[in-house]
Amino acid sequence: MALLPILQYPDPRLHTVARPVSAFDARLRTLAADMLQTMYESGGIGLAATQVDVHERLIVMDISEERNQPLVIVNPEIVWHSEASKLNEEGCLSVPAVYDRVERFESVHVRVWDEHGAQRTIEAQDVMAICIQHEMDHLLGKVFVEYLSPLKRDRIKKKMRKARREDAH
Ligand code: K1U
Ligand code: ZN
User: Fold this and answer.
1) pLDDT tens for residues 112-144?
2) Is 164 helix (H, G, I), strand (E, B) or coil?
3) Is 151 left (phi over 0), alpha (psi -120 to 50) or beta?
4) Is residue 43 within 6 Å of ligand 1 at its C-beta?
5) Dihedral angle at the C-alpha atoms of 14, 15, 16, 18, nearest 10 degrees?
6) Strands ordered across the beta sheet of 107-113
7) Which atom of ligand 1 is closest in space to residue 89's alpha carbon?
8) How many CB atoms lie within 10 A of CB 38?
9) What are the pLDDT digits (tens) for 54-111?
10) In which element (H, E) is residue 123 found?
11) How many CB atoms are located within 10 Å of the residue 118 CB?
């Protein structure tokens, strides 16, 4: 397994729209395993392939306290969502140390495939629903800070660029 570098906002590659996964093969399973290792190592509860510069519709998640319930989600499609939505605090491994509130559907039903090509429908609420909507946005090239005001977003971009300059020294 390998740790993969995570693209940092405002890297333009984070705005790439991912294509569907077409082959459920060893390459896909290795990529999913590497993404899970990267997510666990970074302390995240989810990671989209876009964030590791692979532009295919693949997400990994683990929302369990024990960090022992990995989930591989391929080609997710929302087939139902609640009328109700809710503001929740979100973070992102591509925007470290930035947390803000984003409105998401309270519940979603998502048709997914696993890494072996088996299809199922996930009925997601609470953290699972928030995380899956956040990760599906990544696959569309959207980072959560794009829901914030232009002023906040500009401040975040400046903060991230400054942190990168300081890291380079
Ligand atoms: O970068 C990512 O897409 C992963 C992201 C998922 C996420 C967390 C919280 C709300 C929406 C989406 C993270 O894992 S951020 C870091 C994190 O560990 C975390 C932040 C807030 C709550 C729980 C975990
Ligand atoms: Zn994210």
Assistant:
1) 999 999 999 999 999 999 999 999 999 999 999
2) helix
3) alpha
4) yes
5) 80
6) 46-48, 58-61, 71-81, 107-113, 119-125
7) 10
8) 21
9) 999 999 999 999 999 999 999 999 999 999 999 999 999 999 999 999 999 999 999 9
10) strand 119-125
11) 10
